Amino acid sequence: MKPTVHDIAKSAGVSLATVDRVLNDRPGVRAVTRSKVEEAIAALGYVRDLAAANLAKGRTYSFVFILPENDNSFMIGLHEEVRGAIARSSAERTHIRIIDVPPFDPDALVDALEKVLAEKPSGVAFVAIDAPEVRAAVGRLKEAGIPTVTLVSDLPDASRDHYAGIDNIAAGRTAGSLMGRFLSGPFLAERGATVAVLAGSMLVRDHRERLEGFSSVIGESYPNVLILPVLEGRDDPALAETVVADALRRHADIAGIYSLGAGNRGLIRAVQKAGMSRRPLVIAHELTASTRAALAEGVIDAVLNQDAGHEVRSAIRVLKAKADGLPVIAGQERIRIDIFLKDNLP
Amino acid sequence: MKPTVHDIAKSAGVSLATVDRVLNDRPGVRAVTRSKVEEAIAALGYVRDLAAANLAKGRTYSFVFILPENDNSFMIGLHEEVRGAIARSSAERTHIRIIDVPPFDPDALVDALEKVLAEKPSGVAFVAIDAPEVRAAVGRLKEAGIPTVTLVSDLPDASRDHYAGIDNIAAGRTAGSLMGRFLSGPFLAERGATVAVLAGSMLVRDHRERLEGFSSVIGESYPNVLILPVLEGRDDPALAETVVADALRRHADIAGIYSLGAGNRGLIRAVQKAGMSRRPLVIAHELTASTRAALAEGVIDAVLNQDAGHEVRSAIRVLKAKADGLPVIAGQERIRIDIFLKDNLP
DNA sequence: CTGTTAGCGCTTTCAC
DNA sequence: GTGAAAGCGCTAACAG
């Protein structure tokens, strides 16, 4: 049988309470007694039954998710996944609360983090904005011993405990490779090719990193491909449509478009309306209703995706583990860069 | 506060024991009493605390994994993942046993399934072989109320409870699309292209399905591509090397190779040794040490992968859920067709 | 500093 | 048929 606290108590010749104090590093145990107990624990190979402990404590993990109230499909999906987790709360001994903040607003995010700090929850997950004041706020959470996980967009060299999101440089490189290879046939062989990039804003780190990865692969491996100056669509479908339509008009030779942000509904409309003799190759991010339909129809050629459900479940698992001081299964928490062609749609 | 069995007992005016009998459908309760209790449960919105129940029962889930003792890296990796799960057993209240069987041997698999049936474990996971006697054995497990999960390779219209693996037709189609698009440039434009397919055995369903998906995409969308008769390497590196080397010798014009099974070490050696002026485009399955290295070096162009760790964890989650009659989170159990280029290696 | 005792939510004898 | 009581492994008062 697996040893229990009783076995340890007996073996060390102390009471349950003392064993418990040692197990939970509570004060009030003489060093000698402590080591006696620790020896017994090691000798018996004791491992604590977390479920029993949580039952006894009546423990419930309180987590806060701070999400931007952005109205693009990806963020809406992320919200839904958190709500799904809330629905499962009772079975998972969690209590999860969502705080909505205005997008791209560091001050609002800092405010939210401060409020959370006052609440002292078991953990916080948030979509980071890369700004010094945000890093400072995260530092304060760390000092207070509250585990933090960044979601979707990370904070560089910060004190967050974990990042639940994709490697955006790798994503950009992947897009670059696909673009280069897919273009090779119809265009490159003859006369090189011109490629447009549509971003949301160069202010957010994930977009900058994707551009960086994309550009470096093109530069290294596909010197015949010319990248036009970045178009900024602010993740807004209407604006995206305008800037893309405009670009297609001005550059009749655009052979490919890499959309590294959101607002793809507009991009799709612009491409469809352009009615070009030779449709440009389009690579976009995030599988949503519109990108999925465009992929099936052949308007988009490939979609790079991050699984919001995985990110949310991972964030919760990691926060729980951090709250308990337990290790995580690294492979389970790695968020993949999913590549979808029309053939492997889920 | 969440209602407990005590609240139900009080509200229904019965004892804890009776509530428990109703909750677990045990006999010895008059219909009237039963419905009184059921009403209380509904009225209070009671949900059972599984952790507490398992603690009281001293329950531990006993699972058996039946794995082919194949010596390719993928299967070795799968074994390791199961061993990882075994290492976590105590924390997860599971007791997992591995049964090794000779590969591609339906009789051996049936024998193993029969032995398992006699043991009456809480659940079984196995790499299926598509044969009537296997389906029959699974039927017997189902009758005995033992949940079953197929791993990696499925059993068609069978009574298994769940399949933890990828959609192999979609995987084949994806490989076909990538092959077609990647080939377009250097080869197709001029004179069409010849492609070789290396499989393990046409006896296993996953290999047949991948071939089917691959062939149909090529047929539909890349009529210039000619697929040579399938090479069978029995997932064995040495044999794979021989058959591939032989094929490359006989068909100097091979422009692409789709390796839809295992034994890629041999394939890689054959391609490297062939020293062709123009290296064929290679698409393979399963990210292992050797395919990863080949991808990085440019010997392999793309790898389709199924995450063995995800499959094993998923199988365990599903078996637990089935054993408890609980629902699963569909999105969490979908095994993705991972596509790796050299740019998005994990 | 250490031990005793009750109890978390559920199941399980064993009486009645 | 039904109920009272003990206990799963752990924690939390409260005494000493």
From TrEMBL, chains A, B:
SMART domains: HTH_LACI
Keywords: DNA-binding, Transcription, Transcription regulation
Top-level taxonomic group: Bacteria
Pfam families reported in the protein's UniProt record: LacI, Peripla_BP_4
Molecular-function GO term, any one: DNA binding
InterPro entries xrefs: HTH_LacI (IPR000843), Lambda_DNA-bd_dom_sf (IPR010982), Peripla_BP_I (IPR028082), SBP_2_dom (IPR025997)
The protein's name: LacI family DNA-binding transcriptional regulator
The HTH lacI-type domain, residue ranges: 3-57
Organism: Neorhizobium phenanthreniclasticum
CDD domains xrefs: HTH_LacI, PBP1_sugar_binding
